[in-house]
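Dock 5-O-phosphono-beta-D-ribofuranose; give full complex structure.
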Amino acid sequence: MSETAAQKPPVVAIVMGSKSDFEVMKECSKVLADFRVPHEVRVISAHRTPDRAYAFATEAEKQGLQVIIAAAGKAAHLAGVLAAMTTLPVLGVPMTTSDLGGLDSLLSMVQMPAGIPVGTTAIGKAGAKNAALLAVAVLALSDPALRDALKAYRTNMRAEVEAADAEVRASTVV
Ligand code: RP5
């Protein structure tokens, strides 16, 4: 039986500050699964479980992880805290919040001091998907098959937009 993506050791970790982030971050996991990138999904809070955040970040490289995607909302420090403790690339996804709409998460995440970068994506589902695509792009640097898959993804996207354009133009009465 061939080894599936799920059976291989994860090279990407999706870490969320709360299980309440999972609905959005499923979009991230779906994209990674589409590219057959072995990944794990974890709930680790920088504030509620700082000891687990420390253990995860300091062990991540030894575990074979190559990219960490961190999702958090409100005072969203998870991505920055993990980035402080590993040199693996950390991509941050700001979660939409009920009080401030996610601007709180975005600013908490994106305004890192020089020296400890977090590659911050858009707020919410678009950011969740783009974090996965960025992780694929990083992995594709040393994986020609993945690079081809990423190029095919762009080609398909272009074809979808062109088809939509043709459909809208055909249905427009002038
Ligand atoms: C953050 O606080 C989490 O990432 C989540 O987005 C937000 C709210 O968490 P819950 O109160 O829903 O657990 O740490």
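Observed: The longest strand covers residues 67-72.
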